[in-house]
Amino acid sequence: MRLSDSVTVSRTAGEIFRFMTEPQNLARWDRSVVKVIETSSRPVNVGTTFDTIGPSIRGKEGLKTSYEVLRIEPDRHLEVRVTHSNFFKTAVWCTELEPLGEATRLVCAVDLTLRLRYLPLAPVLLLNKGAITRDLGYLKAELERGDIVS
Q: Picking from 15-19, 21-25, 99-103, 119-123, which range would have the lowest pLDDT averaged per residue?
């Protein structure tokens, strides 16, 4: 299954790329992430790994998901694979940056397969790409705020 959306951001591709390749920034815009744990050394490059912790549910710690950077093309492309998830059997997140003069079009897509027990949720995910759209809105706001730190 593939889900995708895009947003135009009033920042350069370089600024956005630097922000996106800082794992700790995920918690600033992705509402499914409250904490990032870096599990490999710096700088971020192909092979870099990190974990995310989701929001707690009914007092229990949120779900942990593990990732690995698969491909980087500076200021153009970032590809990250889920290496462990209770929800996804496989998932690869791709971010494409398309310069538009003073702004940049950011395209975010995920190719995923759900674990068997979550297959009944597939139609809901396909009909409601709202999570990606919502998070891209948060990302745009965070990037345009003016205080981005990478």
A: 119-123
